[in-house]
Structures are given as C-alpha cells and as structure tokens.
Write a structure and sequence with these properties.
Pfam families: Metallophos
Largest sheet: 6 strands, mixed
Number of strands: 10
Number of domains: 1
Organism: Pigmentiphaga daeguensis
Number of helices: 8
InterPro entries: Ap4A_hydrolase, Calcineurin-like_PHP, Metallo-depent_PP-like, Ser/Thr-sp_prot-phosphatase
CATH architecture: 4-Layer Sandwich
Distance between the termini: 42 Å
Protein name: Metallophosphoesterase
CATH topology: Purple Acid Phosphatase, chain A, domain 2
Order of helices and strands: EEHEHEHHHEEHHHEEEE
Shape: globular
Length: 228
Amino acid sequence: MTTLLVHHELNRHGRDFAVGDIHGHFTRLRTALDHAGFDPAIDRLFSVGDLVDRGPESEQALDWLALPWFHAIRGNHEDIAIRYARGNPVDQTNYIANGGAWFVTLPLARRRIYAEAFARLPLAREIETPAGLVGILHADSPVRDWSRLCWSLRLWRAARDRAMWSRARLQDEDAGGVAGLRALVVGHTPVEDPVVLGNVHHIDTGGWMQDGRFTLLDLATLRAPAMR
C-alpha cells in the first residue's frame, strides 16, 4: 500500500524549497533553481505534484523522481495517469485536452512504468524546519487538524479527492488554516502571485504557463529566495 504521509527530518546543512505545479517544464524549473542558487549537494526540493501533462518534457518526470534531493507528492494529473494505465474509467477526450496526449500515446509497457512510479508517491509530506512543521499537499487539506490527516486519507476517497482536486479554499477565501502546522503549502490552482489564507500558502504561479513563473518557497522563511 502507498505510504500516505512521509516525514522529513530537519535539513541541518542546506535549504528546503517547495515549488508549485511543474507540468512538464523541467528546463524552466532548472533555470529557476539556478537563479535561486540551489545546491543539490545540500538543498532539497519539495514538489506539490502535477509533474506531468501540458508541457513538452513530461517524460523527464521519472528522471527527476530518481534524484535524491527531489521529493514529490501525487497530484491530480498523476492520479489520472494511474487510473488510465490501470484501465479504470477516465474521460480520455478530457484527459487529452488537459495535456495527457503524451501519456495516452505511450506504449502500454511504458505507461505502466510511469503509473507504478506515480502510485508510489505519497499524498502528503511534512518537513521539519527551525520554526516548526510544514506540510505539503497538492490542492488542499481535507481536515482542519493535521494530526487527523492520515486517518482521513486512509478511510475516505472523498478526503483523498479533496487533497488532490479541491479549489474550495481559494474560491471561498477561507482563512481558517490547518492546526498542527506552521504552514501548509499547496498548488493545483494557478494564481498570479502566491496567496496565503490562514497558514495555507498557494504557490502555483503558473511556471508551466507562457506568462507565468515558478515560485520557490523557502520553507525556513516562507519567502521566495533572492534570485542570483
């Protein structure tokens, strides 16, 4: 069974960053990391998921998942790929329209390799920082208290769907936050600039879009690093 939540101890030697949805634009991401002075020998990068679809480099996802400093969670696009590869119901026309053509046209054996890698991704990560615990989910927390997250994800498909698909917090401008965390970092819904509601940081600033950019959030400061 997939581990639902992975815990990461404090990084005592370098910096930890979170990045929003990548959607097959790994070259752009690499440029953003270079500008932030990212050092793969000591720094770590946490992805909110949606590594694939829409961009031209989706097939690089497996290479990035093999990097020891890159830690992703499962987004809704990875979840769709898993279901499609396993023959579960997926609206193929809608999937292709949302960037899934690269996956649909892969040989069956290759699709299964990607799906297996995506299925091993946790739905959540939590990272110790000097100022407290930071959580990572793709879209939103299905619970108001982080201590109840694993229990909720394990029991209810609706909770897993909210974690990967929900836009309700942004739409409702819900500033209630999530107890038990210093901050929760999410993506999924593109925003022009990072939005903070309570202690929930929405950081998908459309690095995969023509007029967007990747936001790298320093988890120690909860700010974007100075660009070099």
